[in-house]
Amino acid sequence: MTVPARSATATGAVAARADNLTKVYGGGETQVVALDQVTADFPASRFTAIMGPSGSGKSTLMHCVAGLDDFTSGSVRIGDTELSGLGDKRLTRLRRDHVGFVFQAFNLLPTLTAAENITLPMDIAGRRPDPEWLDTVISMVGLGDRLRHRPAQLSGGQQQRVAVARALASRPGIVFGDEPTGNLDSRAGAEVLGFLRNSVRELGQTVVMVTHDPVAASYADRVLFLADGRVVDELPGPTADAVLDRMRSLSGDAPAFRGHRL
User: Fold this and answer.
1) Per-residue pLDDT, 260
2) Which end of the chain is more exposed for a tag (fewer CB within 10 A), N or C?
3) For residues 152 and 110, is the Cβ–Cβ distance under 8 A?
4) What CA–CA distance (Å, rounded) separates 42 from 252?
5) Which residues are bridge partners to 137 per DSSP?
6) What's the confidence (pLDDT) of residue 124?
7) Residue 37, exposed/middle/buried by CB under 10 A (0-12, 13-18, 19+)?
8) Are 138 and 118 in contact (CB under 8 A)?
9) pTM of the entire structure?
10) CA dihedral 8, 13, 19, 22 (to 10 degrees)
11) Could you give all domains of the chain from N- to C-terminal order, each with its CATH number?
């Protein structure tokens, strides 16, 4: 497996790529085309947000590119590795060693401390964390005084900080976020997005995030818009207002987004 641990440092590099990616569920009259020949690059050391109306395929795209779901045809590469050629064990190893995940649900083990949750994936893999890097990540997300606390002793925002630190601790080539602020209030959500933004700007991380929130998307370097399983637009240097305008054009007046705040 040739994925470099820090591929994000290469100038102009692509951390992940989908090429003519198609995902079909069912068959016959019940067939649903979730992704329809999607081609998209996810540049290294950049923050990409994926948006679209409900049912547009945005979460399916992220799950396929992250190796969490299979696909019907096309190809996906993370670094230099083609996912379709991997068996289950190699795919599991790729996700463990080169991919970080932050989900809407924090997915922390309640019996472990914050510190133990952060290093759990590396502990399972039998790898020792880089102490200097770990200290850098913990300092960035502001968890220095919470490391001995268990999840029940932490606020929702603090739990998601632990999840962000866990995703970054192994220095993955790419981090995927699936609605990472969906369970947080506006202040905690802004903090978590700030940490993800800083991981790109200060640590050279690559982040790909699915979100329905225009304010969350404004933290990204670019936004990809999906509709009916296809990439239909791209917005560099997004602002919340510009994202909301694009969403309205894709889904009428976008009632689900009107008045939404992070």
Assistant:
1) 41
2) N
3) yes
4) 28
5) none
6) 87
7) middle
8) yes
9) 0.87
10) 20
11) 13-250 (3.40.50.300)
Mean pLDDT by 10 residues, the chain (262 residues): 39 88 89 94 96 91 94 93 88 89 91 95 88 91 92 94 92 92 90 93 94 95 95 95 89 47 36
Give, in order, the Cα–Cα distances in Å from 230 to each of 11, 27, 156, 210.
28, 20, 34, 15
Q: What is the pLDDT of residue 106?
A: 87
What whole-number distance in Å separates Cα of residue 164 and Cα of residue 91?
22
Contact at 8 Å (CB) between 170 and 97? yes
DSSP state string for 15-71: EEEEEEEEEEES-GGG-EEEEEEEEEEEETT-EEEEE-STTSSHHHHHHHHTTSS--
Using the CB atoms, write b or e for 63-100: b if 16+ within 10 Å: bbbbbbeebeebebbbbebebeebeeeebeebbebbbb
The partner residues of 103 in beta bridges, in order of sequence, read: 178
Burial of 187 (0-12, 13-18, 19+ CB in 10 A): exposed
Alpha helix ranges (H) inside the chain = 58-65, 88-98, 114-125, 131-140, 156-169, 186-203, 214-217, 240-250
- Of 146, 204, 16, which Cα lies nearest the Cα of 163? 146
Length of the chain: 262
Q: Which two tokens stand for residue 168?
A: 């970054």
Torsion of CA 221, 51, 173, 20, to 10 degrees: -110
> Residues 154, 213, 229, 231: is their CA dihedral positive or negative?
negative
| 3-class DSSP assignment, residue 188 | helix
248: which 2 tokens?
């309205």
- Rounded distance, CA 98 to CA 90, Å? 12
Angle at 175 between CA 40 and CA 39, to 5 degrees: 10
